[in-house]
Amino acid sequence: MRRRLTKKLMDLLARSKKSVVQPVDGKQDLGRTETRVWEPAELERIPLSPDLQVNITRLKEVFDTNPDFIVREFDIAGGRARAALVFIKDLVERSLVGHNVLKSLMLDYRPREPNGRPLWEDMKRVAVTAGTVKEITNLRQAVEGILEANAVLFLDGEATGLVMEAEGFEKRPVGQPETEAVVRGPREGFVECLAVNITMLRRWLKSPNLQFENMFFGRVTRTRVALAYIKGLVDPGLVDEVRRRLRRIDIDGVFESNYLETMLRDSPYSPFPQMIATERPDKVAANLLDGRVAILTEGTPFVLVLPAGLVALMQSPEDYYHFGHLGSFIRLLRWMAFGISLLLPSLYVAVTTFHQEMLPTRLLLNIVASREGVPLPAVLEALLMEVAFEVLREAGVRLPRAIGQAVSIVGVLVIGDAAVTAGLVSPQMVIVVAFTGITSFLAPAFDLAISIRLLRFPVMLMAGTLGLFGVISGVLAIFIHLAGLRSFGVPYLAGLVPFHSTDWKDILVRFPMWTMRRRPAELAKQNRYRMAPNLKPGPARDNHKKE
Q1: Which residue, 190, 138, 179, is CA-closest to 159?
Q2: Cβ contact 437:350 at 8 Å
Q3: What is the largest CA-CA distance in the chain?
Q4: Domain residue spans in the chain?
Q5: What tens digit of pLDDT does each residue of 161-177 get?
Q6: What is the C-alpha to C-alpha distance for residues 217 and 296, in angstroms, rounded to an integer?
Q7: pLDDT in tens, 465-475
Q8: Do you find a cis peptide bond into 273, omega within 30 degrees of 0?
Q9: I need a labelling partner for 257 at 20 to 30 A (CA). Which of 166, 221, 276, 446 fits?
Q10: Nearest CA among 437, 416, 435 for reference residue 426
Q11: DSSP letters along 364-406, please?
């Protein structure tokens, strides 16, 4: 009976192998073949066979002619049973495969007296020395285990296989974050390897309540994603909502965390970022302590933290690594730069075009004299300079670092001076655009800085057509949009609107650390307090009575 079943399975596999394509004219083209496409659901319906050769044939059919697909057949303990180890050559550490599996089973393993356990369980308990071993029962689990940089062991006579940890591909070493540099603070940043990133968070948060949930996205890429949160601090409803939104994602491939961010946003057409993208493990750990959730994606150093808000996006880890007065001063500068980068060109256009009476006479005369030979109106002049500045900034980013810095700095100086000399723009406009560009770099979140750069253009157009009324209308439209915006149900202006007095200790300024006992009110639903009361420092008190 077993031989008949094996023969039928082999016949089915033979019929599903590559078939020759017949052209329309009836002539056979031996150079063209069509390959069967295997879907995950189809692989899941195929159980592992007790026959070793059937399992090997199935896997060779799935992986086709891939040269890095390796099947190593061998005998266990000098011929007690036949086995096969299957792996992708360049994904595993071959020394681990050779020492932990092949050597252990071929030379070191000694068969014991019959104990009623199946052979695969005996292998798992006393033979295989790999750190992580789990059993599989169908073809999909075997294929996914192989593609996840593991080695899969098949035993003749057993319908259960073993997936063993053997990861060994090259990884980028941990280095400094490229987009979030600090003067004082940790220098390590996330890398593209998810396992390394999880390890970093484990080092920062040494608590068993730190939970990670693994998911896979992409029909083809099968990208591993980890959902991270601290049990007991996070709102369970928030975690459930994140899971629900993640499970509805059905896409061919995920190559960067923005693929997920685009699918998870509350308002997909809003220009404002609705999640915090960061390379810093200390920043992720601090947000997890506030009751937020993090999404770590394989293949990118950027981790998503949610829910996000305007206040959270304007905060930097360095605010907490300095004394309170210095941190508050830097944060106030950051908020002032936020307003300048959005409104300065628009205010200049509105005042010089429609409201000259607001300027002092001497300043007005200087502006009129400098614009005497400029052929363009102020709004077109501002748009031209802003576009030129953005082009030079993007060129500096895309070019190699040493060349890019030289091109961006020299390009701005040369083009600005040439434009003023040629009479295309006024010197005052060059100063306004340059100062606006500098202030835009003060935003801690790169995504927020891009949003302000985009909104600057429509506000300038409104200033060029309606003056200060247009600027005020644009600002009101932005505030109305922000007031109605939410990130996973949490108001985008949380802390500002709705008002919570305790949250104001960490918004525009940073109060001393011992005064910020409570977590953000819109996030903390269970454990509201982050520290004990009465921690204000002071001189030592002499409680001994004087004699």
Answers
A1: 138
A2: no
A3: 117
A4: 31-165, 194-308, 324-491
A5: 999 888 877 778 888 88
A6: 12
A7: 999 999 999 99
A8: no
A9: 166
A10: 416
A11: HHHHHHHTTT--S-HHHHHHHHHHHHHHHHHHHHHS-HHHHHH
